[in-house]
Nudix hydrolase domain-containing protein
Amino acid sequence: MTQLKFFDFKSASLSEKAALMGRAGSSPFSSLGHSVGVRFSQEFSSCRGSGVFTKASYSSSSNGTYMSKRALSSVDKEKFAAENYFYQINGTSVSSSSLFSRNVKALDACDDEYGGVVVDPDRLPVNPDAFASILRFSLSHWKMKGKKGIWLKLPLERSELVPFAVKEGFQYHHAERGYVMLTYWIPEGPCMLPTNATHQVGVGGFVINDKNEVLVVQEKFYAPSFADLWKIPTGFILESEEIYSGAVREVKEETGVDTEFVEVIAFRHAHNLAFDKSDLFFVCMLKPLSAQIKVDDLEIQAAKWMPLVEFVAQPLIQEDGMFKKIIDICIARLGKHYCGLLPHQVVSKFDGRPSCLYYNVIDDQDVNCKGN
């Protein structure tokens, strides 16, 4: 007698019920309810939809695979080829009169613009076993559809599904606080999906007042060799934050001083830093709008206004080629021997989105961008 696995059918969701095979004893069901469908959208992030359903009656073939009783259309043949393995019962052949009823539906997903699929994370099966079965079916279906990369985002509260996805061949792509993203590359050959983010972006604020004093800080957490160093305020920009606004925010958070962005003076590109990521560090010249200092107790040990000549004379500055060059550039900018980069709002036809393009413009009417 063929053995089938069941779970609590009353508590199961529709998608879970769709993932189960049903057969009671030797009494056959008269028809097989069959539904397949993935509603694809041109919008990458829109993955809603209930699927497109078709119904057909199936009987078994000599190899135990259930075949359609009616003639298959070209579309049905494609679906049947993708679903073929689903209609096996423990690999055991059964008589042609044995029928069972089953609904099959691929995971809710939408097309991306590169021929891939993005699974809707809000419409995943509740039961892990049902998820595993539907995922296997979905992969077969997407292969037959000629899809390429599959993006599977599993929220933190659905972390129990990760082992099932990995078992089917999915690989880790990246993780955030609330989810893990996994991917599956269908075509043969090297994976063409973009890798995880390769860079972190930092900013430093060079703030100098009318007294030729630089706003400097000493951090609470530092390597022993930097114990006596007074440095400019620095930090990482936030997601969707501009470089210029990130520099202003970091200075405000660490010192309490309000500033106005002037220019990007220079930037550094380094590799194999934290977690083997690359690092972009933008040095921004800022104009102070206030003078009173209020130290951030979480990160900063002390902050003060320091005379420029005293700041430059620090041994750690003089001995470090990069920091010394940064100070040289900032001093050249103060003497109008150097012009930095200003952000300009532009819109590209490639994506239709506004962005900042940083470049300098020499304008006879702009005394701030004139060399002596």
Summary: Residues 128-144 form the longest helix (17 residues). Residues 109-185 form a domain with the Aminopeptidase fold (CATH 3.40.630.30). Residues 1-46, 48-101 have pLDDT under 50 and may be disordered.
